[in-house]
Every structure is written in structure tokens, then in C-alpha cells.
Specification:
With 60 residues, the chain is mostly helical. Helix content is 53%, strand content 10%. The model has no long low-confidence stretch (mean pLDDT 84).
Length: 60
């Protein structure tokens, strides 16, 4: 699936009353998650140094 198709799929999965800001936030989160996974797989960061999220709060 190419990038355009992934973005369309992501938007279609959101509720019909979604705002532009919410769409932008979802894209921002997705981009940063993919970058983190890529950095981890390339050894740019160590797994034990990545923040963890529990109950909606970031833990370091």
C-alpha cells in the first residue's frame, strides 16, 4: 500500500464528525510512530531508552 492509500485508509477509519485538527493529529502520531520504529530498527535508539505509555501518561 502506498502512502496516499494509507492516509485515505486512516481517514476513512475516523468518525464522520472528525475535525481537520484531529485528522492532522492522527497523521502526526502515525508519522512519528513510524519514524520511531524505523530509528529503532536502524539502531539509532535503544529499546530500553524509549518512553513507555501507561494509562495515558508518558513514563521515562
Amino acid at each position: 500500500m502506498n502512502t496516499k492509500e494509507e492516509v485515505i485508509k486512516l481517514i476513512k477509519e475516523l468518525p464522520d464528525n472528525v475535525t481537520m485538527e484531529e485528522i492532522m493529529h492522527e497523521l502526526y502520531v502515525r508519522i512519528n510512530m513510524e519514524k520511531g520504529v524505523q530509528d529503532l530498527s536502524e539502531g539509532k535508539i535503544e529499546a530500553h531508552k524509549t518512553p513507555k505509555m501507561r494509562s495515558g501518561k508518558w513514563l521515562h
